[in-house]
Amino acid sequence: MDIEYLKKLNVKFNIIDEKEAANLISSEYPLNRLIEFASIFEQYKMTDKQGQFVNLEFAQLYYLTKIDERLRHILMKMCLEIEQKIKYILISDSIKLKVARTFLTEYIRSDYDYLYRHYSKELDLFISGDENVYTLDKFLDIITFGTFVKLVRAFYQQYAQEIYHKKHASFEQYLSSVHHIRNKAAHNVTLLSELNEKRGLLNPQVSEYLAKHGINSKTLKTNLSRTIVFDITSVMHLYCNLLSREQIKQNNKVWRKFVFKECRSYKKLFQKNEILKSAYRFSQKVVRIYSKKVT
User: Fold this and answer.
1) φ, ψ of residue 152 in degrees (nearest 5)
2) How far apart (Å, rounded) are the C-alpha atoms in residues 264 and 252?
3) Digit-coded pLDDT (tens) for 142-201
4) This prediction's pTM
5) Residues 256 and 74: beta-carbon distance below 8 Å
6) CA dist 256 to 60, 263, 286, Å?
7) What is residue 238's three-state secondary structure?
8) Alpha-carbon gap, residue 237 to 289, rounded angstroms
């Protein structure tokens, strides 16, 4: 049934035959996962084949799914390490100002209805008044990343001027991208299937840094206007400006292996797909630039 559906869409089985494709669908990736990537391949628009794919191989869907899975694993680790670092910074800043407990009390009161709906059992402990339980670091351990982002913004809205002499902490502008990528990776949602989606916004710090290191404005505009590319690049930029030297070095090794070895092995398979080619060429440039940040 799955194979027949793909054949109706004019998907070819010249590289991976129908029998093997059926086995891969039943044992590795379901059809709905594979077909998510079809949106970035060309379809007939004006002929009697309208809606069918022009030249799409099953192998392209399959290997792109594998690439995407590997990409999510890399990014999830980065997001978790970023989250841990920001938690440390937040706790450290609250201790320096001696506001950890008072801020937590005020924050819970200010957003009590939302917090109680999502953390009713845990929240009872935090409003019990027990000094050993009622701590900011323990509270951070029970909340989701989305709630964590809200708390971080609330804290630095109140204290960033006092700590950094600015309206915001330097990492705040990247939190939306980290949140987006982390949620997708954590819930096993594909990333590269979104390459056609555009946001049209640029992060000045990211684009200026990449421009300074040799990427022209047209390339930056084309690629950073794509939401998923924008978010991945923002996560990488934040990681390389926030984490320890050793973590950055190890992360760069992973990225170089992924881009220049793992992805390159599939290069011929996608050489006619301009969206993937553009994103891949951009990723090569970005990885080279951030790899030089710590050598």
Assistant:
1) -60, -45
2) 17
3) 899 999 999 999 999 999 999 999 999 999 999 999 999 999 999 999 999 999 998 766
4) 0.92
5) no
6) 22, 10, 10
7) helix
8) 10
